[in-house]
Amino acid sequence: MKLSNATLANLPAGIVTPTYDRSALSAGIVHIGLGNFHRAHQAWYLHRLMQQGKALDWAIIGAGVRAGDAAMRDRLLAQDCLTTLIELDPAGRSAEVTGAMIDFLPVEEGNAALIRAMSDPAIRIVALTVTEGGYYVDATGALDLSHPDIRHDAANPDTPRTAFGAMVAALKIRRDAGHGPFTGQCCDNLQHNGVILRQTVVGLARLSDADLADWIDANATFPNAMVDCIVPATGESELALARDLGVDDAAPVTHENYRQWVIEDAFCAGRPPWEDAGATLTDDVHAYETMKIRTLNAGHQVLANAGELLGVPTIAACMSEPQIAAFFRKVQTTEIIPYIDAVPEVTPAEYLALIERRFANPEIHDTTRRVAFDGSSRHPGFVLPILRDALAAGGPIEGLALTEALWCRMCAGTREDGSDIAPNDPHWADLTAAAQTAKDRPAAWLEQAQFYGDLGENTALAQAFAKWLNLIWADGSWHALQHYAETVG
């Protein structure tokens, strides 16, 4: 059955569908970046509220700023912006069609339609999932003023290239019209993600209009949040799975049977009652996001680079390989958990056990390639802050150094069976050149200051990294993992 408003009533009986009148919804949110994660997470929470008869004036208008977003727009508009969510629980699969999204803006140069939509005072939240590396942060954590996109938007504030430039342009229109600002809501996996979004928006505004920047900084809010749900990419097998369930969906989403959303309650123009759909509202997101980003997101990098090098196709398959799983657990318990505080009702050790169960879910075909993508953002964002804490505390770093050596070896572009690793990072060419140089001179990898900052100057890290990288090149990754398990600590 082709998915659309007209066919919802004819879908198989086991598929949950919207009980609310979608024609009566009105928009309150513009969401930029309509990938799988957003549709399985924020959009799902809103859909659940609507199923309760709540938040009917908070529907989502989708948007994108990259040329590739146009293809997703076409797919979703053709099915009335509906999405089939398929939960992959080892105990049994289930499906639900969500309908919180009601439109998708044209994807166009200059972003006029996006600016116009965000200028409407009915839009009270502008949310984003644009990937961890999409916020123009340099190696020091500041806004990268040298980036061509930032320079373009500073010089052309009325026809911006970036989502943030479009937000600035819309906020200017709202201010000039006497309207209040919207809340900027980051839904990406970044520590202090609201702070980073504020830095990018306000910093970009300051390059062209200092008074506007001051107004945004004083009046707009950018709540920090922790988001969590494992959502694999959609390919032919996911499309076929939806068809097997009786739905012809051009963009279905599979996901695990777990979600978490912890949100700072700081919304300048109001918000849906997210807590009624299971979100946690708190004034202290930091402890939650630290636990999640360090255990899950950094843990993903511990697994994925080893898995990609060794031809292990998925995260679940990595967890079923004893040597890789042992490496993961040892790094977590000795080098990551010591720098994580407990949160209400869960200790770091209990959370690690939860992550291990989730990663091992055989129904989730989350590829090592997807998880290893954009390591140039994910290692600086997830792994290197732990390394800094460990070095400052004088704690062990061998497993984290091995993690970095595995990333370096992966970026050389070949697996250990000789097969090629296709480019998998926005900076792939530079990473490959550095990795190949590091084969003979390991320090060349850590000298990439745009990723490592001053960490490359740390003698303890340099020595540990060189030891592991040399061992990987000489005897292979399996041997390095075994050597770490048997000799370290």
UniProtKB/TrEMBL annotation:
Signal peptide: none annotated. Residues 284-471 form the Mannitol dehydrogenase C-terminal domain. Residues 28-275 form the Mannitol dehydrogenase N-terminal domain. InterPro entries: 6-PGluconate_DH-like_C_sf (IPR008927), 6PGD_dom2 (IPR013328), Mannitol_DH (IPR000669), Mannitol_DH/Oxidoreductase (IPR050988), Mannitol_DH_C (IPR013118), Mannitol_DH_N (IPR013131), NAD(P)-bd_dom_sf (IPR036291). This is Mannitol dehydrogenase family protein. PANTHER family: MANNITOL DEHYDROGENASE 2-RELATED (PTHR43362:SF1), MANNITOL DEHYDROGENASE DSF1-RELATED (PTHR43362). The keyword Transmembrane does not apply. GO terms for molecular function: oxidoreductase activity.
